[in-house]
């Protein structure tokens, strides 16, 4: 659906998403799904035949930015991607995801084996697997399989993220409900990079806002912290980094590019977020001092979320791949 033809502006989704995310703060997981579905946010990427909006990534970005800024405890990125990837393949499941009646997630680490039509293996970095109905797991052949979460064993994992905690899923002879080929999985993973960058941007922007409020009100030696030049310079550098993330995401979602260039734009958008996001969160922690590590100050939760998202995207390997591509082109 073209933005002009639809009469929609991606910015219009931001206000709706902010209200929905704020409302979810006092709700449990399943109620959060229903609340997000009520505002149509779970169907941004899903086809209209399944009750979705059939829009592109540029419309999903402000929704994910709001989720990152509001510290939303729900696997929204995974739900949006699943609903989009399963379009035309599992319409009933897509409709259930869009309506908030089913919950899905994606394993971002490890790979399972497909043998004799059954899936076995150990998958890591599975956001909120214990509350999911369906999990998309990567396969060793490059494709992916959709399996019922109850078909595997969910175990606790060491994770920094306290908002959308990651878990381990162990499968032994699980029957897949659907298989995606390597091409479909590649598209999903490329789209995930942009949406992950949007989550990081929202979290980083909130860190800057919280830090700015703190230095304007906190006084030391008879004057507010913001009066010190080093503090102002630190905030300015982080604001510049935030705008770098925003610009990279904008290019990846609004500029018409050839297939290879489009993938590179998605990769660089995520790398920009993975570079500046942690720095912004850590800078905000520095301005709060020891207070930043207390539960009363939210900054450290955003830093944990950012670091988890950074790990899910496999930053070291991605940096090497992008660098190799630039060297080859030169």
UniProtKB/TrEMBL annotation:
Residues 196-317 form the Acyl-CoA dehydrogenase/oxidase C-terminal domain. Gene3D superfamilies: Acyl-CoA dehydrogenase/oxidase, N-terminal domain, Butyryl-CoA Dehydrogenase, subunit A, domain 3. Its cofactor is FAD. Keywords: FAD, Flavoprotein, Oxidoreductase. InterPro entries: AcylCo_DH-like_C (IPR036250), AcylCo_DH/oxidase_C (IPR009075), AcylCoA_DH/ox_N_sf (IPR037069), AcylCoA_DH/oxidase_NM_dom_sf (IPR009100). It holds the Pfam family Acyl-CoA_dh_1. Belongs to the acyl-CoA dehydrogenase family. PANTHER family: ACYL-COA DEHYDROGENASE, ACYL-COA DEHYDROGENASE FADE28. This is Acyl-CoA dehydrogenase. It comes from Teichococcus wenyumeiae.
